[in-house]
Specification:
mainly alpha
Amino acid sequence: MIFEIGVLAIIVILLALLWLRRPSASRRAATAKTAHKTTTSPMNPAAAQRAMASAGAAEAASAASASADEPGAPRETPAPLLALRIITRDDLDAGAQAQVEAICRAMPEPHPVQKHMAGGLDTPEELLDAVVTDAGLTAAILRTVNSAAFALATPITSVQHAINYLGVGMVKGLVAQSVVAENTLEGTPEQQAALARVWRSACSASAFAQLLGQELGLSRPSVLSTKSLFFNLGDVALVLGVDGATQWYEEGISIVARIEAQQAACGANTAIVGAELARLWKLPPDLVAAIETGFLPLNTPAAEHPMSGEERQANIIVFLAGRIGDRISYRALRDIAELPLGSEDEPGLFFLPEHLSSAGLGRAPGLLQSPAFRRKANKLISTLAP
């Protein structure tokens, strides 16, 4: 009996000691608050940039999504985008409209194959049939693909060989480049250099629109490729028709700076000029509309995008492909994984992640980082810009 009382006494003492050593209510609250702060405190933009450098662009994309002050809070729009007002056709006064029309009328008449491309030529067979009937065009394409600019290990001996090796999208770009070059032989060296960068961007955009469309399972990737190819039509007209325009196409210039310079000089931008030229050439209405609305994703938040469904997806992919093309041609991008989607330091790409997500294309950022896509894309880049 005495033994049992002693055991009970020891248990009571131990329980009392444990009760006395428990954390106080205030300490428990402080601990919980600290733990919550540690696990939910957002990563600031500087930390996100460090994450990009140390852990790769995929981790940086995740960090960017957590960089707001609280979950779901909008990021601060970069100052260049806040200051940018993109002029539309409806904004043109009589003088600006007259200048746009004069720029377009000064362009040479389109080659017949350009109209064919605008309305189709989406299969290898259609493209081959359209090109091989023009000996001069065939020679120009073969001369281009076998030049030092492409640095191919194996010579291309026919248009069929070029289509098989480079793909429909890239060969369509080369066709467009060749027919414009044929009509602009008298351009100055500065104009020729600017046009070379414009066409490298256009060819790259066309090839990437096709590739992205295929990888994301979109309908008619070849149509996206064509829209991306013709989006730069206004740039060609501006280079040839506006004094000093070649400065807008120098290496390193951003899309925001280029639009601002265009609008300051002639009260319009490449989307307005390109759409007007497409109308003058009687190109398909959907192509005219694609050119005219091509800058929507640049400074329009996803919640305010006026399109929906496949039309919206096409608009976003053409814009993304265009920015990839510009990055390759003007900023020496050589690794697709280094494309800084959503970066505050790259206004042209700032709204793209939310646009892609809202349009049902949320896989795209991860796709750009995936090893398999990266190999395809970087091989394409090395061919376009060796």
